[in-house]
Write a structure and sequence with these properties.
This protein is α+β, with helices and mostly antiparallel strands and 199 residues long. The protein contains nine helices and four strands.
């Protein structure tokens, strides 16, 4: 059975715009997904990236146009300047890791719910109540927000190290079990084609 490792940040606008398309592709091809939330700012620092606040004005302006265009093409609500961004991504990431370890819910829905909270609902994903609501929406026990914090912290750090080692430099980033890498929500169609044996 095919497998996909999905590296992402709960703060990523592109992870939000990915919606549930990667999950649909995985289901279509009978592939499993392991989700690997990580610290995107630390990843940038380790892989030659630049945090948005430090980018050249030309890059900032293009990013602003492109995010709005992509949201419109996907017919998704989107706030280019959310009230709580950037914020501390660790609490939502630890809760996600706890949910993946516990099982019983929909991880794709959880990822989308957390990212949507930032980019469409002006919520602060560093707040316990927001994380709990996302967990419940995705079919998980809200109490997972308070459990497995040590394991969450260790896994979060390990995910970053694994990402650097495996050539990840952005979010979302998909790696198949054959070693093919796909960066960005706009490469999900390519991931689909690869799993179909076309590329």
């Amino acid at each position: 059975m095919a497998h996909i490792d999905l590296f992402f940040s709960t703060l990523s606008p592109y992870a939000y715009l990915a919606g549930n398309r990667a999950e649909k592709v995985a289901e279509k091809h009978g592939a499993s997904i392991t989700y690997k939330p990580l610290d995107i700012m630390a990843l940038f620092a380790r892989t030659g990236g630049t945090p948005p606040k430090d980018r050249h004005p030309s890059r900032v302006a293009y990013r602003a146009q492109e995010l709005v265009r992509q949201a419109k093409l996907l017919d998704m609500p989107f706030n280019l300047k959310p009230a709580h961004w950037p914020t501390n991504a660790a609490p939502s990431s630890y809760a996600f890791i706890a949910a993946q370890n516990a099982g019983g819910g929909d991880l794709g829905k959880l990822m989308f719910s957390i990212c949507r909270s930032v980019w469409a609902e002006d919520k602060d994903i560093a707040e316990d109540a927001v994380v709990r609501s996302c967990l419940q929406e995705a079919g998980f026990d809200a109490g997972l927000a308070d459990s497995g914090l040590l394991v969450g912290a260790e896994t979060y750090a390990a995910n970053l190290e694994e990402a650097v080692e495996r050539g990840v430099f952005g979010s979302p980033f998909y790696i198949t079990d054959s070693g093919q890498r796909f960066w960005g929500q706009d490469r999900i169609a390519d991931l689909d084609a690869h799993l179909a044996g076309k590329i």
